[in-house]
Design goal:
By secondary structure, the protein is mostly helical. The protein folds into two domains: 5-205, no CATH class; 219-264. It has twelve helices and no strands. Helix 1 packs antiparallel against helix 5, helix 4 packs across helix 5 (78-95) and helix 6 (103-144) runs antiparallel to helix 8 (157-177). It comes from Clostridium neonatale. One of its GO terms (cellular component) is plasma membrane. It is found in: Cell membrane.
Length: 282
Amino acid sequence: MTITWIQAILFGLLACLASMPGMGGTAIGNYTLGRPLVAGLIVGLIVGDVSTGIMVGAAIQVIYIALVTPGGTVSADVRAISYIGIPLSIAAIKGLGIDPSTVEAAQMAAALGAAVGTLGTVLFYGTATMNLVWQHIGWKAVEKGDFKKLYAVDMILPWVSHILFSFIPTLIITKMGANMVDIIKTTLPMDGLAMKTLFTVGSLLPAVGIAILLKQVVNKATDMLTFLFGFILAAFMGVNLIGSAIVGGFFAVINYKIKMIQIAKPVASGGGNAVYDDEEEI
């Protein structure tokens, strides 16, 4: 599989929009376009293989399902994971002739995504550092009362940072990095030690993501029931991700209605007493 210049340019633009802090905004950019699951669909549309894109995106999303950035601390950059890691993973899977629906494909995607995500932290901090320059320009403009200059500081100058640390690296790596697949194919056999190591590491990474999520959402023993419910649906009933999400949505609505009823009862009880007291006063 060869990534064309047009495709690489699109990946670069999407990396800019998904960057943290995102040019597309926090909600649209970072938390939507920047998510591997969403990026897998978009990358799949660009390369013309939607099914493989979604499978690769889902495999990588499991690792970073609980990714947070407390205080600006970034362990992995989802911009690089989504728009460098996923295109290269698709190129590797198709170039090596691996079935995208197999465990080997998921392991390959997980390993490549993790490697690119770690390297992507350099891009993140590079962007943040250059944005500090624009911030100082903005403060000086405020001190001088030149508030019109703030439009350029907020909307124009940050594009310089994102072009240097998002667009150009993504363009070069996705275009040139795809050629590495041919080198891997000829020098590293699938049954060799290097590839077996890569697949082994890739198989362990999803467990890390699930463990982080488990630590965040489980506060008491009974929370494990809802946490494991989706795994039970998939393992024993053969329900896919979409079906599990729909079933989970049903239970979420039911739980929400129960909580609202529990909240409404004390309010109604308190309201009744208030009416009774008013009648007594009259």
